[in-house]
Design goal:
The complex is a heterodimer of chains A (176) and B (360).
Chain A: E1 9-14, H1 20-29, E2 41-43, E3 51-55, E4 58-59, H2 63-72, E5 78-82, H3 84-88, E6 98-100, E7 110-112, H4 119-146, H5 161-175
Parallel strand pairs in A: 1-2, 1-3, 3-5, 5-7
Antiparallel strand pairs in A: 4-6
Chain B: E1 4-9, E2 21-27, E3 30-37, H1 57-62, H2 69-84, H3 90-118, H4 122-143, E4 152-153, E5 156-157, H5 163-189, H6 191-197, H7 205-211, H8 216-219, H9 250-274, E6 290-299, E7 302-311, E8 318-322, H10 324-336, H11 344-350, H12 355-359
Helix pairs in contact in B: 2-3, 3-4, 3-9, 3-11, 4-5, 5-9
Classes of the chains: A alpha/beta (176), B alpha+beta (360).
Chain lengths: 176, 360
């Protein structure tokens, strides 16, 4: 982990996990593993969160909730999928109600595997997320500097360079 | 009479570890009615039963819930063993009791932590989870997993507890008991904790009976119902007594769960005393399940019912699971009526909600 200037806040949402990863995320934040020494802190408010951790896959009913939480978070933001279910759907992949992993609804940056994901690997995911958040935050500042004095903030539809490419692709598909 | 309004609570809320949505009808600060809305974690795993081999389906059932995973596996194998008339070796039955009780300890310690967090006592939350990690270490040593154990199989267990492990478990349990006793003083005697728990969310014995509450929720209201009294696995040889409290408020529920931790420690010790020194770990299972069976077992949160039906094929035709939180949700709606809005997080937590069990 390089030099980090900011302390990102974590928001945890339980998609449709079995609770295993869910509890391990909390265990990672308690003193035995203590992820807070990397500067992150757990919050319950999406409006103040920088890193979204999703455990479990996505089903019909919670897809809008996850989407809304993602939209409510300010840019720049990082999304971490914790556990096999969030990565791919896991053992529940073939259940009638499941849409799949968390990436079926929101763009995922970091995948943490494991059933249930161990605190050590979740911690590794958090460290990667902190680093990525710092990088995006620098990009964001750079963009604002370059476009100083222009009306309005950064294009609200663009989060990262990857999203930008994705949007262009979508636009191209719509035109064709 | 004040103006009525509806406050939505959840599915994402700082105090909720899992998503559940409640529509709270409030009049001033008092709650008049609570309407639960569940289904945010519904996966439909019962529907997978016809697509999976009955031996492999065990690993899906274990993933119903990460906290009561051992309990779910146990109920499922019991139901299959019931259909196929499998005689489980004695040592395996004792090993199952040991793991089931240690899983109960982790669950109750976790609940104590969440409750402390709900009334804003962060250091107590951390203390409970620190002790919980010690039990998890013992589970990891014996089974290889922290939350999902996968040590069960139809007809027995897959792993053994060696004498060295047994010694380590007994040593560590002494330490865990000592530390839990120290923590208990804060939970039961501290003035500020008492003001948040005493007299909050009273569920009378009659109400608990009417709504069909189960587990610690019912036992805190004075109903001595515990499936372990049925004597499944090796419980009949261990002289099991249910832990009961009379008041029916949040404090009583806290008391019941704390005393159950000590009861579980005692049961693990007794199980090691009575356990045959050596023996088979599993019986051979031949053929496919043909018939139906209801298994009832006591999970950390209460009575869970497992129904399996097979017709001589490798796959089950039907699997059904009724979980304790589903029964206790009715009790939650009952206790919420007339409660203060500020007490809602504590009341939701005192039923020890396990939403992923409930919604499967």
């Amino acid at each position: 982990m390089g030099k980090v200037k900011k302390s990102p806040w974590l928001l945890h949402y339980d998609g449709s996990s079995c609770n295993g990863c869910d509890i391990e995320v909390l265990a990672t934040l308690t003193p035995v593993y203590d992820a807070e020494r990397f500067g992150v802190v757990n919050t319950g408010d999406p409006l103040q969160a920088d890193i979204l951790m999703i455990t479990g896959g996505i089903n019909q009913q919670n897809a809008p909730v996850v989407k809304q939480l993602y939209d409510q978070m300010p840019r720049p933001k990082v999304v971490v999928a914790v556990g096999t279910c969030a990565c791919s759907g896991g053992v529940f992949r073939e259940c009638y109600n499941m849409l799949g992993g968390a990436d079926s609804t929101v763009p995922i940056d970091i995948y943490v595997p494991g059933c249930a994901a161990r605190p050590e690997s979740i911690m590794d995911g958090i460290m990667k997320a902190v680093e990525l958040f710092q990088k995006r935050s620098d990009e964001h500042d750079q963009y604002e500097k370059e476009h100083k004095g222009e009306a309005g903030p950064v294009d609200p539809n663009i989060n990262t360079a990857r999203d930008k490419v994705k949007m262009q692709e979508m636009k191209g598909a719509a035109d064709a | 009479m004040g103006k009525r309004s509806v406050i939505p609570f959840g599915p994402q809320h700082p105090v909720l570890p899992e998503p559940i949505h409640l529509d709270l009808v409030v009049e001033d600060e008092k709650i008049v009615e609570a309407i639960p809305n569940i289904g945010f974690i519904h996966r439909g795993l019962e529907g997978l039963a016809p697509d999976r081999d009955f031996q492999k389906y065990l690993y899906v059932v274990e993933r119903t819930c990460g906290i009561c995973s051992f309990g779910h596996g146990l109920g499922y194998v019991e139901s299959i063993e019931g259909i196929m008339n499998v005689e489980v070796p004695e040592r395996a039955r004792y090993l199952r009791v040991v793991w089931a009780e240690m899983a109960r300890m982790t669950s109750h310690l976790m609940w104590l932590g969440f409750t402390a967090d709900a009334f804003g006592f962060e250091s107590l939350f951390y203390e409970a989870w620190r002790i919980r990690e010690k039990v998890l270490d013992l589970m990891e040593m014996t089974t290889g997993g922290r939350l999902i154990y996968s040590v069960l199989k139809v007809g027995g267990v897959l792993k053994d507890i060696t004498p060295d492990m047994q010694k380590k478990i007994l040593d560590d349990l002494n330490e865990i008991e000592k530390e839990t006793r120290e923590m208990t003083k804060t939970f039961l005697d501290d003035y500020s904790v008492q003001t948040r728990l005493k007299g909050v969310g009273v569920l009378t014995k009659q109400q608990a009976h009417d709504v069909g509450a189960c587990g610690p929720m019912a036992r805190a209201s004075g109903i001595a119902c515990d499936m372990r009294m049925r004597g499944y696995e090796a419980y009949s040889d261990l002289g099991f007594e249910p832990v009961v409290a009379q008041d029916g408020d949040s404090y009583a529920r806290c008391e019941v769960r704390i005393n159950e931790i000590f009861a579980s420690i005692e049961l693990v010790r007794r199980a090691f005393e009575h356990m045959p020194k050596e023996g088979d770990l599993s019986a051979t299972v031949k053929g496919n399940p043909n018939g139906e069976y209801f298994a009832r077992i006591e999970q950390p949160r209460g009575e869970a019912i497992f129904y399996s039906e097979g017709h001589g094929k490798p796959n089950l035709d039907r699997f059904r699971l009724r979980t304790p939180t589903f029964a206790n949700l009715q009790a939650l709606c009952e206790t919420l009526k007339g409660a203060e809005y500020a007490d809602v997080p504590i009341l939701i937590l005192t039923i020890d909600p396990c939403i992923s069990c409930t919604e499967r």
